[in-house]
Design goal:
The chain is an alpha/beta fold and 319 residues long. It is built from 14 helices and 9 strands. The longest helix is centred in the C-terminal third of the chain and has 18 residues.
Length: 319
């Protein structure tokens, strides 16, 4: 069978690294490129982190492109408490590749070019703020219709927030970009929301089994997740992120579905939009469950996950 062609757009924090490693380990996947966006950390760190993961996985042949360093309105919203200041748990690597390995071409033009080279065949997996994706749609209005699929980690379906009362981090970091993407994309669009991630958290005993495999990748994962694990198990993390009851690799839920659609066992199709003006709800994803807005494009929102398949994809990532 022909391999699935994936293009990854990441803001490489710890869970992006987990999702990327999941994709690298999947035999049915070919990764055409990785585009970097601001989000979990500053864009320079994102680029460095992607290269670090590629070197670990011996995949330095995959081209990496630098993209947007802030939201469409020029705002930055990094969260050092969760991923660490550098995005990868503040565990420096003196042998990490330098930024000279980043392609000269900008992430947005690279996205457009790659998709134009493989019209109707590329699945874009966007697991950070959607700034690059929105810019691509604005630069080339045909871009959204030329994708095969778009998978997004972001937004929420029950007004449950993490960095805002009603807002999920990736959408809150660039609400305008999220709004553009949800209103412009005509290709089949799939969303792994914040609540979907929380509902499918993994037991901590699985996490410890996962990172204690006797491999170089597992040792790396154990190091970069130490900061995150400590925070999520703390009173503050349990309260803010609801993680205390288990391990949540947010970005991996979208990646798993892109790799193997059977991982998702139940979903729903709705028109979706993003609130841009509310004092409490800016950045919140709104599901039009009654179809009152009569939106032409509908998104598939994930509801239930096959946890055994998801666990296996995670385990394979660190072998």
């Amino acid at each position: 069978m022909a391999k699935k062609l994936l293009l990854l757009d990441v803001d490489c924090g710890v869970d992006d690294a987990q999702a990327m490693m999941m994709a690298f380990a999947a035999p049915n996947v070919q990764i055409l490129g990785i585009t970097c966006t601001h989000g979990n950390t500053a864009i320079e760190n994102v680029c460095k982190n992607v290269l670090r993961v590629l070197q670990l996985c011996k995949r330095m042949e995959i081209p990496v492109y630098r993209g947007a360093g802030s939201s469409l309105l020029g705002e930055r919203l990094n969260d050092p408490a969760y991923h660490g200041k550098d995005g990868l748990g503040e565990v420096p690597d003196p042998n990490a590749p330098g930024l000279e390995h980043i392609q000269a071409e900008n992430a947005v033009t690279a996205m457009i070019r790659i998709v134009n080279q493989h019209v109707g065949k590329v699945t874009l997996v966007a697991i950070g703020p959607l700034t690059n994706v929105a810019l691509a749609a604005k630069m080339d209005p045909t871009f959204p219709s030329k994708l095969k699929y778009l998978y997004i980690m972001g937004g929420n379906m029950e007004a449950r927030g993490n960095v805002r009362v009603c807002g999920e981090f990736n959408f809150v970091t660039d609400p305008e970009a999220a709004s553009i993407v949800l209103s412009h994309f005509t290709c089949p669009t799939y969303i792994a929301t914040w609540e979907y991630s929380l509902r499918h958290r993994l037991p901590w005993d699985f996490f410890h089994k996962w990172v204690n495999q006797n491999t170089e990748k597992a040792q790396f994962m154990k190091k970069i997740t130490a900061h995150t694990t400590e925070f999520t198990k703390s009173d503050q993390g349990s309260k803010e992120l609801h993680f205390g009851q288990g391990f949540v690799s947010c970005d991996s839920y979208a990646m798993a579905a892109a790799i193997d659609e059977s991982v998702v066992t139940e979903d729903a199709r709705y028109g979706v939009s993003v609130e841009l003006h509310g004092s409490l709800t800016r950045g919140m994803m709104v599901l039009d469950t009654l179809d009152l807005l009569k939106l032409k494009s509908k998104a598939v929102v994930f509801l239930k996950c096959d946890m055994e398949k998801f666990k296996q994809l995670l385990m394979n990532a660190l072998k």
